[in-house]
Write the C-alpha cells for this entry.
Amino acid sequence: MPLYEHIFMARQDVTSQQVEAMVDQYKGVIEQNGGKVEKTEMWGVKSLAYRIKKNRKAHFTMFNLDAPAPAVAEMERQMRINEDILRFMTVRVEELETEPSVMMQKRDRDERKDRERRERDGGGGYEGEEA
C-alpha cells in the first residue's frame, strides 16, 4: 500500500480532548477502509504565520499512514466537512519515518533549555524580580 504523511490543524479554541477524539475518529476511518496509522504525533498549539478563518493559533497533529488512496480520500472528505479543521495536507512518501519528527525533537530540545535555564537562575522567576 502507498505510504503517506498527513498533517492537520484544528482550531485553537477546541480542547486537547476534542483533538484526541478527532484523531481517534480519523484513525477509525483509515482502519475501516483497509489502512493503518503507523504513528501519531500531537505537536500541540502553534502560532500560525497568518490568520486562517480568524485563528492565529492551531492544534497541529501528524499521522504516518499505510493506507490505500480511497481511505485517505474518505478521511480528507470528512475533514473538509468538519468546521474545527482549519487546514490539512497529505503527502505521499517513499518510506515512513520511525523516529520522532523534527517538530517533536525541537519540543524536547526547547523543554531541556527551559529546564536548564530555571536551574541556572535558581528555579525562580526573572532576574531582578523580588519575591
Remarks:
- The beta strands are 3-11, 36-52, 55-66, 85-93.
- The helical segments are 16-32, 69-81, 102-120.
- The chain is about 35% helix and 35% strand.
- The mean pLDDT is 85.
